[in-house]
Amino acid sequence: MKILTEHIDVPGIETIDVFCKHGGYQAVEKAIKKMSPDEVTEEVKKSGLRGRGGAGFPVGMKWSFLAKPEGIPRYLVCNADESEPGTFKDHYLMWKSPHTLIEGMIVSSFALGANTSYIYVRGELMYVIHILEKAIQEAYDKGYLGKNILGSGYDLDLYVQAGGGAYICGEETALLESLEGKRGNPRIKPPFPAVKGVWQCPTVVNNVESIAATSWIINHGGDAYAAIGIGRSTGTKLISASGHIRKPGVYEIPLGITVEDFIYSDEWCGGIRDGHKLKAVVAGGSSVPILSAEMILNTVNGEKRLMTYESLSDGGFVTGTMLGSGGFIVMDETTCIVHNTLTFARFYHHESCGQCSPCREGTGWMDKVIYRIEHGKGRKEDIDLLVDVAKKIEGNTICPLGDAAAWPVAAAIRHFRDEFEWHIEHPELAIQPGAVYMRPGASWA
Amino acid sequence: MKVTIDNITLEVEQGTTIMQAARQIGPEIAPPAMCYYEPLKASGGKCRGCLVKVMAGSEKDPRPMPKLVPACLTQVQDGMIVENTINEEVLETRRGIVEFLLLNHPLDCPVCDQAGECHLQDFSFEHGVSNTRTAEERNTFEPTDLGPNIQLHMNRCILCYRCVYTADQITDGRVHGVMNRGDHAEISTYIGKAIDNDFSGNIIDVCPVGALTDKTYRFKSRVWFSKPVEAHCDCEKCSGQVTLWYKGEEVIRVTGRKNEWGEVKEFICNTCRFDRKKTAEWTIDGPTQISRHSVISTNKYGAKLIMPAFPVIQAARDYKLIDDDRDRSFLTDQNKLEAKK
Q1: What's the distance, CA A17 to chain centroid?
Q2: B174 at the A interface (CB within 8 A)?
Q3: Does the distance separating the beta carbons of B133 and A356 come in below 8 Å?
Q4: Mean pLDDT for each 10-residue chunk of chain B (341 residues)?
Q5: Degrees, nearest 5: CA angle A298-A301-A304
Q6: What is the reported pLDDT for B184?
Q7: Among the partner residues A188, A379, A392, nearest to B73 by beta-carbon distance
């Protein structure tokens, strides 16, 4: 079942003519001509679509929280600042099929009553920005954007804004600051963007994938979308699969397939590369807890783990993880978890905005300690120190970057403590290039 | 509106923050504030030193809040129950915050001009732990001059953003902000441009640590060896309400008048701060009231004593117990003194 990527490989799909030939902009016609904004919102609510950026908050509910005071403009902002290590789905979608996003933007802006909308794209993707700008111009020329769209009296202007290349600007309030031309520091909540967002006006910030999915929902109905998937995880999800698998890439999966199926089936990842075994998986982008092979394939109750929001988080952070943004990083037994954790910790150290003290100082501290351990200079007490530092960052910061920095470190130690201990006890072995600790009797060995 | 903080209930107006309510009770209860500065709009929420536990959100919705909340920004709801100094989770978090703030702070207190009136020293004394767990090298920066009168020691900066808000809100034409990010972020002027503004000196007063120092005062004295005196003058730029710091007969420093929370009551201009250093230029109003927990009070005379902070009361009580055990009557009783000999 493909919704977003159905026509993605059609040659010329990035042009509006080919896109329209394959059913493009029908949702705009249907929504603007036949439906009221509330009906569109209702349909999205019915679909059970959840935010695809990481937190998984229901999109329809987020829309209904938008304050609608008289005489004050409202805004829709598309968060295309996809910077999470391991996640590259939005990039793929915008690059291949920009009109999918633009159509979703028009439908969503109509539902929210926004007359100005922004797509905030990370600055590194300059060529994607050019593609989007070209596509927006085509949409203006066809009358899908601008004044009086399709003769309905509804106006919409759509702008693309390039980010400056900071991970933190993917956090919604930092994104709004950056959009306003200021330093990208997260704002302190409350007030939430739904009340005071960009230019101090009510704003909804949604991920690319969430917005793109709304046009299919309008075309086929919320119930049809809700029929895909299991329980509260409805619809399809783009998964960016990377690491030691045969076929890395972006896959659109119906939520509810098993993790085992996703890794080993030829339809998706095609299994672990030849002659190697699965060791660990980071299921939702670098910030979610890493899990070992047995934990990612089966829940603690012995059930098969599914690719859904609920099943992946089954067992909390003790034995579970999160679907997050769908950055699925697979590691085989040649991977050193300490080295991998160092890479993540270094990333968060580099990307912390430095506004609040636990994250600013804690991320740097964890990075330095793990660097010492990895380079054979670890002390016995360092492992407990890392756990304690992670605990003191988590939940005490202004924005979720603190949590995102603390979770991978805490989880790596929770599940692979023996590897850290081995690094500390055998520094002469650990500093050898490519050295990896092999757990005795490990299931992946 | 009724709010309970550490089992003390009081009535406050709508829109009061937990910090303001706690300050109404007194310094024993008020959470530490490293970045919050009442006269500066939008300050606070950054240092996380004032995190408190909300045990009940309000009368209507008595659920506890899942995370610790910053007292400086969280508004009181009717029937809210807050735990500050009696909650172990809060105290444990604060120990962590002190540790984080000191991680890259140089601990050069022996040569720092701020020592004695440093909020980080107080915070660390009241909430820190005595051992250190870090073996890492500290991030270092070179000291830079921000104009002729102000020196920036970025090493000591805790990125509270107070000076940035001051530059934004008090002075016109902002040339001062934060560059870079994370633990390598630094306060800076735009490409080393000097801060040239009549009110720029106030960034020294708002700095909680010794990152921004007065170059006319550098290394002249330890804070506790100088005597603060309230004075005023007719100034066309500012209110002229200042504190003069005397060492002997000499005025070695001029600052704004600060309240018991270390916040200036009125911002003063650079002429008053840097250029008027003769007693003849001022009208003396009298000695400054200094909180007894401040080391400045060691050199104080005749001022009204303000209640000392909670840990200091405890320390004083403990000391008194030890003190009472000792037989000190010989100091007054001449006979006993003779007997001892």
Answers
A1: 30
A2: no
A3: no
A4: 92 94 89 93 92 93 92 93 92 94 92 91 89 89 88 92 88 79 84 76 93 92 88 91 90 91 91 92 86 63 47 60 48 49 49
A5: 30
A6: 87
A7: A188
- Cα separation, B305 vs B116, whole angstroms: 17
Question: What pLDDT score does A140 carry?
Answer: 95
Please check whether residues B114 and B214 belong to one and the same domain: yes
Q: Is B135 on the interface with A (CB under 8 A)?
A: yes
Which spans in A221-356 are helix H? 222-227, 259-264, 293-297, 309-312, 316-319, 337-351
Per-residue confidence (pLDDT) for residue B167, from 0 to 100? 86
- Shared domain for B303 and B316, answered yes or no, is no
Which structure tokens are listed for A383? 């492992």
Residue A351 to residue B139, Cβ atoms within 8 A: no
B179 and B77 part of one domain: no
pLDDT cut 70: percent of chain A above it: 99
First-last CA distance in chain A: 35
Q: Is B131 on the interface with A (CB under 8 A)?
A: no
Domain finish residue from B219, B238, B269: B219
- Whether A170 and A164 have beta carbons less than 8 Å apart is answered as no
Residues of A in contact with B159 (CB under 8 A): 354-355, 357, 360
ipTM given for this complex = 0.90
User: How far is residue A264's CA from residue A258's CA, in Å, rounded to a whole number?
Assistant: 10
Say whether both B211 and B235 belong to one domain: no
Q: What are phi and psi of A204, to 5 degrees?
A: -110, 130
Of the residues B219, B248, B275, which one is the last residue of a structural domain? B219
Chain A residues whose beta carbon lies within 8 Å of the beta carbon of residue B67: 395-396
Report which residue type is found at B137: E
* Strands (DSSP E) found in A166-273: 203-207, 229-230, 233-234, 236-243, 249-254
- Global pTM reads 0.90
**Residue carrying the six token digits 């509804």:** A154
For residue B64, being part of any structural domain is answered with yes
Tell me how many domains chain B contains. 4
| Regions of chain A with pLDDT less than 70 | 441-445
Domains of chain A, start order: 16-227 (3.40.50.11540), 231-332 (3.10.20.600), 338-430 (1.20.1440.230)
Instruction: Give SS3 for A23.
Output: coil
Tens of pLDDT, residues A90-136:
999 999 999 999 999 999 999 999 999 999 999 999 999 999 999 99
Q: Which domain holds residue B328?
A: 311-341
Out of B93, B97, B182, the one facing A353 most closely (by C-beta) is B182
Whether B262 is in a domain gets the answer: yes
Position B102 in a domain: no
Which residues from A are below 8 Å from B101, CB to CB?
Answer: 357, 361
